[in-house]
Amino acid sequence: MRPAGLALAALLLAGPAGAGEAGWLPEALGSLRAEGPVRELEPGGLYGYMDGGADSLLELGFDRLWVRRYAAGGEAARDGLVVELYRMRDAPAAQGLFWQRGGRDAPGQRLWLQGRHVLVATWTPGAARAERGAGELAGLLAARLAGARPDPSLEALLALLPAQGRLAGSTRVVRGPLGLEGFYSLGEGDVLLLRRPGAGATGLLARYRDAAGRETTRLALAYATPEAARQALEHLTAHPDPYLETLERADGRLVLGDGQGTRIEATLQGARLDLALEQVAPPAP
Amino acid sequence: MRRRAFLRGLGAAAASGVLLGRPGATEAPPAAKPVEPARPPAVETNLADFQAVPRGPHAIPGPFPGRVVRVTDPRALVGERLDPKAISDMFARGLAALSGREPRQSFEQLFSPADVVGIKVNPVGPPLISTRLEVVDAIVAWLTASGLPRGQIVIWDRFEHMLAEAGFTPARYPGVRIEGLQVLGEKGTAWRTPDGRHPSEERFDPQAFYLARGVTGEAVRGYDDLEHYLGQHVFAGEKSFFGRLVTRELTKIINVPVFKNTGQGVSMATKNLGYGAICNTARLHEPLFFRVCTEVTAAPWIRDKLVLNVLDGLRGQYDGGPMPAAACVYPYRTLYFATDPIALDAVGHRHLVEKRRQAGVAVNEHPRFTRYLHDAEALGLGIADPARIQLVEVPA
Prior knowledge:
Number of strands of chain A: 14
Strand content of chain B: 15-25%
Helix content of chain B: 25-40%
Largest sheet of chain A: 7 strands, antiparallel
Largest sheet of chain B: 10 strands, mixed
Number of strands of chain B: 14
Oligomer: heterodimer
Number of domains of chain B: 1
Radius of gyration of chain A: 21 Å
Mean pLDDT of chain B: 89
Structural class of chain B: alpha/beta
Distance between the termini of chain A: 43 Å
Distance between the termini of chain B: 45 Å
Largest interface: A-B, 78 and 79 residues
Helix content of chain A: 25-40%
Mean pLDDT of chain A: 87
Low-confidence stretches of chain B: 1-34
Order of helices and strands of chain B: HHEEEHHEHEHEEHEHEEEHHHHEEHHE
Low-confidence stretches of chain A: 1-18
């Protein structure tokens, strides 16, 4: 996380909810000027802004988005800067969005994450004034640097999987069927009951490589209760995708295979359901 | 079940009418008490009505079924700078490789000077991953040099404000119409006018719609109620109406999507039209998603007018899509050409999966991410079978 993210949190926490965030996107960033007022989008407005991209944000837990466009006097689309400030339902949702958008800075984009908030500044790579504007934004954040307390819900999420051996850029937050597809298509609909009101789950997905070069994809799901986790495993046992066949089944454990050398093992431990996916044989020709 | 058996099941299901929404061949699940229904009920659509309309002379897959041309040129993007001249040159070479003709002859094969040609761009995610202006510049230059008046060219998308945000403005394209199917209200920030009227209502054709039985705007995630949903979606019932621009004005369509992912699938040729030519789409994402891409493309107003697809891969995005994720954007310096949108998406999907593997991103190759393309092939809309696709590589 960028240190400036701490400043963002301090700024956002300082003002009243909503008004503070909207007012935070300034009229000017370096030589760039805002093209218009801040556009505020609630969940129902998200499809009109990003169409299909809305689905995964809503699944993660979207609350509000403020957008402001800045132009440098040329063609706004070519030379301008787009700043998006997302407020998610909670810190795990914000972390999920941060990873979904790449999880790091890259030519044409800077990302900040703190608490429930993610700030994304996007420009055409090589547009120097826009890039300087993004730098100005970082400066504004740094100038108000202040401490922020770690979010316990995020710490609990991150503790679900070990950091050692994790492949860079592979970590995702899973809160529904769309996120689950990053692991495997285990079944139709909400086959792991991730979205059940009051009994759903938040999970952490990541890929690992061991010393021998063998790769495993792991998904750890934390359910609300042990009973909810048990029901999720039962549901998967009863309704696996037709692409899958059951290889082993025991109390609290299920092993599935896809006939293409993929082996998926699900293990129940209290309120936690762990899944591990390995390619144990080469796919059939 | 082995994969081949599974795929055979899919083919049989397609042939037996699963495309209309009946469930395909599946294994009986083991006995256990379900917590809730595992499979949502299949959705009936009006695809059969589209199929019943006789095909027009220019219907997809057009004169080159299964043929996809890939042009890659390192000059197109040097550092972070796009080179309009190199991109124009790529366009000319790609078109020639697709048609085997000179530019003017290619035009005459696909268009007449009387046509009203709509260029469907993808303006989502500017300035990083939307359709590049340089590609559209090359298309407009080709059309006008071939004798099509600028006033008969329309750059279009579903949302008018997105076109402007992506740089498709009258100042950039003088004399060319730039039009969204759906517009914001008079203040430019709300979907409806203060008196509750929806300014976009008359822009949709009540006679032309994609029907998804039982799927409405009610209870779509993100909306408090139906009134809330209607604000953005103009209509909220079982029908998604096509834009009048598409059904009544355009006589030909050039589709210019970008090379990017949406989850484990692609957001390329068929998605650009499937979700770009109709309203009331949020209701369709969860129950139908990829089916919409090809079933809307199967409608006569698209099927019989779509004559060319140019896939903008000058920069590609292999993950994080459909929104821009710069860490997953890379210089691909490539344009694809096809009259067959199904073959183009099939090739695009394969190339995107290859890129995801190279980048170390998780790949899920479940058939659900390409099944809609095979279904479209069964309908005669194009070729999805890799063995029947001809990929023509045009080097620099």
